[in-house]
Write a structure and sequence with these properties.
Blueprint: E1 23-29, E2 31-32, E3 44-45, H1 48-63, E4 70-77, H2 86-98, E5 106-111, H3 120-125, E6 130-136, H4 140-145, H5 152-164, E7 170-176, H6 183-195, E8 200-205, H7 213-220, H8 228-244, E9 248-251, E10 254-256, H9 263-269, E11 274-277, E12 282-285, E13 288-292, H10 296-304, E14 310-315, H11 318-331, E15 336-337, H12 338-345, H13 349-352, H14 354-362, E16 366-368, E17 372-375, H15 377-381, H16 383-389
Bound molecules: iron/sulfur cluster.
Iron/sulfur cluster binds next to loops.
């Protein structure tokens, strides 16, 4: 027999101490119709009975968290939209637990355009007010090579149905670096996305993760993949095209019309607290970072036994918190705001990162002035190189 979850408001020992400010909630829903050959996320094939068991487990984890004012909710995966009506069950529980009114905060659902468009209106009624649609490309040959289960026409039809169902805040993901992709096929995909009138586009580079079928393919046939310089050029060209139609870049991979930037992700880049629920979900609360176990079955078992789902909990030392805040902020086009950094940490970022700023600015990757510190357009393409420099702030007394 399964043990009952702790009553709402009673936190067991494994939950983190929290602070009073608002928080984001991320729920990982790991189910997919089929596993894409480049995917390295915690995912499992969809099976309805197991999905129900999993949702029960997430509800137990939710019940064990301390209710706090929630600013955003993000249902990610996996393919959360595969859960159909269970999305309403989950959201009702989150809204009830946190005392937040449905529709009063940004609530994002990641959706696969191939499935469940008939649930769009119900999701909206349940409080979903932002859709992130995993399109990746509007070129059928590229979609086939990615192993996706939809074609371009299906993706476009899903977006139109979403709008008919009342969604205005819709984002589309587009990928650069797909095998066989050329600058002109990418720009055609971006053009189609823009023609659909969505106010948010994520344009990001395919990452080939070790151990995936794509990694084997690239080892065998590296020429099938666009090279690093070609991908960088495609991203640069894509950013210019999106800017030209009014989609402002606000983060390395994200572009939006005014008022449509993703508040949940901005919270993450501003190092706001985030409660992570579900298998492999990561959370950050009051300087403590944690991650849940990566096996979906193990996650369910632990929740059913009333055990902690945590795989790791790490108390970030002060210098690491300061360095991480800077690195996350640099992902945003506006970068580090000197004044708010000072207000938050009592430190002048131009002093504690003086050496990093000097080195990166000399390389043309960064600019710093009295208002803030930000990447240059070239720096955005080499953000990882810059971020390493900001890992260790110089915190010695002045
Ligand atoms: S749909 Fe997304 S999460 Fe699912 S297998 Fe493909 S890439 Fe991974």
């Amino acid at each position: 027999m399964m043990r009952a979850a702790p009553p709402a408001g009673v936190a067991p020992a494994w939950t983190a101490q929290t602070s009073d400010n608002g928080v984001g909630v991320y729920v990982h829903l790991p189910f997919c119709d089929r596993i894409c050959p480049y995917c390295d996320f915690a995912v499992v094939p969809y099976e309805s009975q197991f999905a129900r068991r999993y949702v029960d487990a997430v509800l137990r984890e939710l019940a064990a968290t301390t209710p706090r004012p929630v600013q955003t909710i993000y249902l990610g995966g996996g393919t959360p939209s595969l859960l159909g009506t269970a999305i309403a069950t989950l959201l009702t529980a989150i809204f009830d637990h946190t005392g937040v009114a449905p529709g009063s905060i940004e609530c994002t659902l990641e959706a696969n355009p191939a499935r469940n468009a008939e649930h769009l209106a119900a999701w909206r009624a349940a409080g979903v007010n932002r859709l992130s649609v995993g399109v990746q490309s509007f070129n059928d040959a590229e979609l086939h090579r990615l192993g996706r289960n939809h074609d371009a026409a299906t993706a476009a039809a899903f977006v139109r149905r979403a709008r008919d169902a009342g969604f205005t805040n819709i984002g589309i993901d587009i990928m650069a670096g797909i095998p066989g992709q050329t600058p002109s096929t990418l720009s055609r995909s971006l053009e189609t996305a823009c023609e659909l009138g969505v106010p948010h586009i994520s344009l990001y580079a395919l990452t080939v993760e070790t151990g995936t079928p794509y990694a084997l393919w690239r080892d065998r046939a590296p020429a099938a993949f666009p090279g690093e310089d070609a991908v960088a050029a495609m991203l640069e060209d894509g950013a210019a095209r999106l800017a030209a139609v009014g989609l402002r870049q606000y983060e390395i991979s994200n572009f939006a019309r005014p008022g449509f930037a993703c508040a949940h992700n901005i919270g993450y880049w501003r190092q706001r607290d985030c409660i992570g629920l579900g298998v492999s979900a990561a959370g950050y609360e009051a300087g403590r970072r944690y991650r849940n176990v990566r096996s979906t079955l193990e996650y369910c078992r632990r929740m059913e036994r009333g055990e902690s789902p945590r795989q790791s909990i790490e108390e970030l030392p002060w210098p690491a918190r300061v360095g991480e805040a800077a690195i996350l902020a640099l992902r945003m086009v506006d970068g580090i705001d000197n004044e708010s950094f000072r207000a938050r940490f009592g430190l002048d970022p131009r002093r504690v990162f003086a050496r990093a700023i000097e080195r990166c600015a000399a390389a043309g990757l960064l600019e710093a002035d009295t208002a803030g510190i930000r990447l240059t357009p070239g720096g955005r393409l080499l953000a990882n190189v810059v971020c390493v420099e900001f890992l260790e702030p110089e915190l010695a007394p002045a």
